[in-house]
Amino acid sequence: MNELQITEDNQAQRLREGFRVLVRRFSLAERADISCCGMTVAQAATLEALTDGGLRLSALGRRLGIAPSTLTRNLSRLEERGLIRKEPDPNDGRAQRVALTQNGFEAADEVRRQEQIFANSVLERLPQGSAAEALDVLEDLLTAVRSATEECCPGAYDHLMTTSQCCVTGGTHE
Fold first, then answer.
1. All structural domains of the chain with their residue ranges
2. Res. 8: pLDDT tops 60
3. Closest of 158, 78, 139 to residue 111, by C-alpha
4. DSSP per-residue string spanning 56-121
5. CA 100 – CA 86 distance, rounded (Å)
6. Full-model pTM
7. 73-92 as b/e: b if 16+ CB within 10 A
8. Looking at 35-44, 75-84, 99-108, 114-123, which range is the least confident one?
9. What is the CATH number of domain 3-125?
10. What is the pLDDT of residue 38?
């Protein structure tokens, strides 16, 4: 193995380890923030997915990347709490749509507020003046991850992208 290959392997290892630690830390923080709002991460993700409007059950399941049985359980709990409502699909009487209630919008706003507080806390801890550069690099990294994912597993990333998750810096929506 040549020196260039060793360097590339070390960089790949550092990237994998960095992602693992970052995902773990953010997951723990997200769980703590969301549990303060009295719900699970999956329930919070469901509310977030519905903030732009109601969705058919099948579309919601695809967007969240979860099995129908898991979706049904999450929706039942959210409906019991008065955060969502099921309604007939106006375009197909056999299908149902799920939409947020006013309480659901308020709960989604509270989750978003908690997550914003945490994100601001992280940004405040970066060296002065480096936040914009860090976000630019993160956007480049996410673009590279999506491209690599499309190469090996076309379409696998699509359910993770919503209009509110287009890019880190808030550019145009996909």
1. 3-125, 126-174
2. yes
3. 78
4. EHHHHHHHHT--HHHHHHHHHHHHHTTSEEEEEETTEEEEEEEEE-HHHHHHHHHHHHHHHHHHHH
5. 9
6. 0.72
7. ebbebbeeeebbeeeeeeee
8. 35-44
9. 1.10.10.10
10. 80
The number of residues making up the chain comes to 174
DSSP 11-34: HHHHHHHHHHHHHHHHHHHHHHHH
Look at the block and give the residue holding tokens 């967007």: 63
Place of tokens 């630019």: 136
Report the distance separating Cα 31 and Cα 135, nearest Å: 23
Tokens of 107: 């709960």
Which amino acid would we find at residue 76? S
For tokens 């380890």, the residue is 17
Return the structure tokens found at 56. Answer: 């058919």
Q: What are phi and psi of 3, to 5 degrees?
A: -65, -35
Q: What share of the chain has pLDDT > 70, as a percent? A: 87
Q: What does the pLDDT look like over 18-67, one tens digit per residue? A: 888 888 887 887 777 677 778 888 899 999 999 999 999 989 998 888 88
